[in-house]
Amino acid sequence: TAKVYYDKDINENVLQGKKVAIMGYGSQGHSQAQNLRDSGFSVTVGVRPGKSWEKAERDGFPVKTVREAAAEADVVMMLLPDERQPEVYYKEVEEGLEPGNALAFSHGFNIHFTQIVPPKDVDVFMVAPKGPGHFCRREYLNGGGVPAFYAVQQNASGQAEELALAWAKGLGAARAGVLKTTFKEETETDLFGEQAVLMGGLTHLIEAGFETLVEAGYQPENAYFETCHEMKMLTDLIYENGLTGMRYSCSDTSKFGDFTVGRYVIDDGVKTRMKKVLENIQSGKFARDWVLENKVGRPMFNSLQQKENNSELERVGRELRRLMPFVKDGKQDSEDITAN
Ligand code: NDP
Ligand code: MG
Ligand code: MG
């Protein structure tokens, strides 16, 4: 069984007095910068001029270009989009890394797939929160936290592991549990989780259910509530008390359907394909496809995103949520979401 670290197991002094730069002020950037600051660390944000720059300034951070922030920092956390990190790293970060500095990530992709190869004389660690940035910030403010995985790829200073743990504690992650892993394990399991279950599996399950009802002539609004809106309530119950706790709140009629029909919908063929998905991640095929897609200007990504965002499910959902303002009040910046 894995060792799980909590607040009481971690001494954060090693990070105190260090100059910390967070590169990027998006989903993870704003959350990690604010959580660390509220935990007593001083943080500089490194971004390019534009929306994120202005936002970080409004939130009261010292803001610099990535190049300036990297040159001054002892610890650099890379929270730019994964696919942009290699270019920015080689142009603006690498020259600022001095022996004994630390380079950190929140996902293993670029190190594991060797898109970034740091000099040997710096620490390389990862603290990967296992939740979306806006949720990590919300939980921190509520006095809770989102679990995180940490890993050390290079330990030049001899303190990389302590630094990673201190970072995780500063994020509030050690309130929930911090687990040691490797860059390889985090990369492969993170990609698998988001592709097969948390995102790809879930979004397509919802869409298939919604379309089945609509194509059979049922009202789209009805279908939206049945296959999408209620999902949050059930997953909240799973989050709190497991599958059993969710089922406890539901009728025996629904449980009979769950037990007998669920395995007909999600049959052995699903698992066979999940194994293939995992193989494509492990072999590096998925990573090659994604790197190539970016090299050619993202034609497939852009057209699929356009199609997904404008599906009937999404159109019906936007309209219904507009009439339930309490559902999203203050929870996520809607200007960013509708921008796509
Ligand atoms: P976002 O897309 O939300 O944010 C990216 C940030 O990088 C923005 O502030 C953007 O600023 C800035 N940026 C983009 N290009 C440049 C550039 N060339 N120079 C300077 N700044 C730039 O990223 P995420 O937070 O989703 O992802 C960051 C990392 O965290 C990734 O490694 C990801 O895998 C990992 N991660 C993300 C999670 C999440 O919750 N989203 C969960 C766990 C890990 P601008 O406004 O100028 O575009
Ligand atoms: Mg993830
Ligand atoms: Mg991921």
In total, how many beta strands?
A: 9
Count of individual domains: 2
- The average pLDDT score comes to 96
CATH evolutionary superfamily of the largest domain: NAD(P)-binding Rossmann-like Domain
Q: Any ligands, ions or cofactors bound here, and which?
A: NADPH dihydro-nicotinamide-adenine-dinucleotide phosphate, magnesium ion
Terminal-residue CA separation: 42 Å
Protein name: Ketol-acid reductoisomerase (NADP(+))
Cofactor: Mg(2+)
Keywords: Amino-acid biosynthesis, Branched-chain amino acid biosynthesis, Isomerase, Magnesium, Metal-binding, NADP, Oxidoreductase
Organism: Sporolactobacillus inulinus CASD
Which key terms come to mind for this protein?
single chain, 340 residues, alpha/beta, Rossmann fold, 2 domains, nine-stranded mixed sheet, 17 helices, 9 strands, binds NADPH dihydro-nicotinamide-adenine-dinucleotide phosphate, binds magnesium ion, magnesium, isomerase activity, EC 1.1.1.86
Description:
- The chain is 55% helix and 11% strand.
- The chain has 340 residues and is an alpha/beta fold.
- It folds into two domains: 4-181, NAD(P)-binding Rossmann-like Domain (Rossmann fold, 3-Layer(aba) Sandwich), CATH 3.40.50; 193-338, no CATH class.
- The chain has a nine-stranded mixed sheet, sandwiched between helices.
- β3, α2 (51-58) and β4 (63-64) form a beta-alpha-beta unit.
- Pathway: Amino-acid biosynthesis; L-isoleucine biosynthesis; L-isoleucine from 2-oxobutanoate: step 2/4; Amino-acid biosynthesis; L-valine biosynthesis; L-valine from pyruvate: step 2/4.
- Substrate binds at residue 251.
